[in-house]
Please model this.
Amino acid sequence: MNLNSFLLMRHEIVLIAVALIILIAEIFTSEQNKGRIRGLAIILFALNTIIGFFPATTGTLFGGMFTTIPLHIVVKNILNIGTLIVLIQSNAWLKTEENSDKFPEFYVLLISTLVGMFYMISAGDFLMFYLGLELATIPLAALVAYDRFRSQSAEGGIKLILSSAFSSGIMLYGISMIYGMYGSIYFDMLSPAMAMNSLTILAFIFFFAGMAFKISLVPFHLWAADVYEGAPVNITSYLSVISKGAAVFILTVILFKVFPTISDLWQKVVWVIAVMTMTIGNLFAIRQQNLKRFIAFSSISQAGFFLLGVIGGNEMGMTAIVYYMLVYIFSNLGVFGVIAIISNKSGKENMDDYNGLYHTNPMLSLTMMLALFSLAGIPPVAGFFGKFFLFTAAAQKGFYILVLIATINTIISLYYYLLIVKAMFINKSENPIPYFKSDFYTKLGLGICIAGLVIVGFASGIWETISKLAFGM
Amino acid sequence: MEITVNHLMFGLFAAMILVFSVLTVTTRRILRAATFLLLVLVATAGLYFMLNYQFMAGVQLTLYAGGIVVLIIFSILLTSHISQKFEPVGWKKSYFSALASIAGAILCITTILQHKFQATTEAAKEIDMKLIGNSLLSTDRDGYVLPFEVISVLLLAAMIGAIVVAKRKKKD
Model:
């Protein structure tokens, strides 16, 4: 092992370097110049995103604890792009007076959770996987409680940390059973040894329950709505897009890599959970009036759609998941971007407040509409293709009833997404949200989302690239 | 089966862990909960001693029982009043939680007892400090230098997070 081989961990090393530079910059800048750190952070992170696209070598390090394959690099780049959008979107919010004394920590915490996700994605054994998971969760709890003088935010933070500690406990119990039976925690040693017996099934259920907690699949979703509502909007968007995407990806990888011999079992489990997640998430979303809660439940139901790719259990499914992750980042961040702007400028978060928004803020309304169409899966925006490929992946394996249920759920979700569109464009309002000008960064963030939605929808090369790499799994 | 001293010791430690764990979560005084937790951790250290894993037992005693419980007690004394009692939990809640935990315990115990574990063929190893040090800093298989470093990133992030949450409101 020499220094050169460390370059395999380039994504992680660059990220840690960015976090450390921001931390050091905070110490050495004077009180008046603190504001410059915001620009510095975005520039550094943009650099990091660009560096991520440089050709990278693949292989394993540390005796198999760290593996990197081309697909991992694609996923890391996608997560980088998403986090960059989140950082750009949160710029206006971090500028406010109440955040002036703690915004540099925001960047360090956010970046360290991303480092955790990267290690989790590249993990070659359960220890690194678990460490990555914790690194991706614990700083997030502090971020949820970032507005700590608002009681909802503090409550969200404590709920997140307690429920994630509980789910980690359950998952670790499952992992310890696996270690007790097979004497290893390395994925490559476990997969050939794994046999179907009742203790393995129990261990798998515990592991799956822990992961389902993190992805907020029904029936492990109850924490999500409160945490999403309590957290600052930008953190909510990070939680529901980036963390969720990374967790779904790693769940799929582990199901493929560690539990292939009991795939009959986990397909049944995933089937039931997928149906429950899609349906219950949708039904609860219809009842919500607060838009943050609404998006929380709609993103629970979106996680159910991800499971359609998981259940496929083949390259097609893997490609569909990664592709949908990219689409989902652009669409959900678009919606959250608009909600964040309106919430920060006017403090309004209810659906009725959006009545007549088109007449005062046409650009914001159009952005929101496009992003919602993408979430609902209306062509030609990218969301349609994302859902289409997920359905194809499940149908390829013969899960026709599941695809049928998913299609019905798509129609239900279309109804409530259109409710918002109707509020913005058709409903009249006595006192609509007044017009306001957004600053450069806000426009840039939303612009990237819109461009992404259109480009990913039309450029078939993206799908083909991911598809080619997924066969290396 | 012949009952040896080892069996007796194991039974004693296991009973201690079980009883005090239940007491930790059922007591209504927070300082007592911390004390019961201390006893649970000490009993766990006893189990490590029985396994002949002295290093782990030492770490358990000094770090968990010594350091962490002292920290917990400190923070309790700094933040809440010592005579403060929690509200009693409603019977419905305790009934259902007891039902869920007992059902879960029965499920796990029966499944684990059913399973035929294969004994390892490797001979018992004397675990000395040199072995632990080597594998802690080894980059090969079964080496733990990467987790070791990632934990330090985690600790840094957790500390910054704690500072963000605990920071005083800026004076106007």
The domain at 1-88 of chain B is CATH 1.20.120.1200 (Four Helix Bundle (Hemerythrin (Met), subunit A)).
